[in-house]
Amino acid sequence: MTNTKIFEMSFATVYPLYVKKAERKGRTKTEVDQIICWLTGFTQQQLMAQLQAEHSFREFFAVAPEINPDTKLIKGVVCGVRVEEIEDPLMQKIRYLDKLIDELAKGKTMEKILRK
């Protein structure tokens, strides 16, 4: 996995795509935000500040308060790659987020998505 262009992409640019994907499947922006906050440890206010700052994915995850320890429970395939086997820590975090948004769009309950 050598494509690192996404590392420098603005998180604020991709965020509306996450929301749009969720809303197309009858889910909400609030649920997307809840997933992002669960994964990163950001509060809702901190997440909004990150969106306004237009940080890259690299910067976004670098300043995240704490990646949820339950990410080890996230399993499955995103973009043809098993998320639990991704070696690059930053790419793995990005793909964890992709996987969680996919699960939301596929209709999983928030309880299952957040590994409760």
UniProtKB/TrEMBL annotation:
Pfam families, sorted: DUF2200
Protein origin, superkingdom: Bacteria
InterPro entries per the record?
UCP033199 (IPR014580)
| Stated name of the protein | DUF2200 domain-containing protein
Q: Which organism is it from?
A: Enterococcus alishanensis
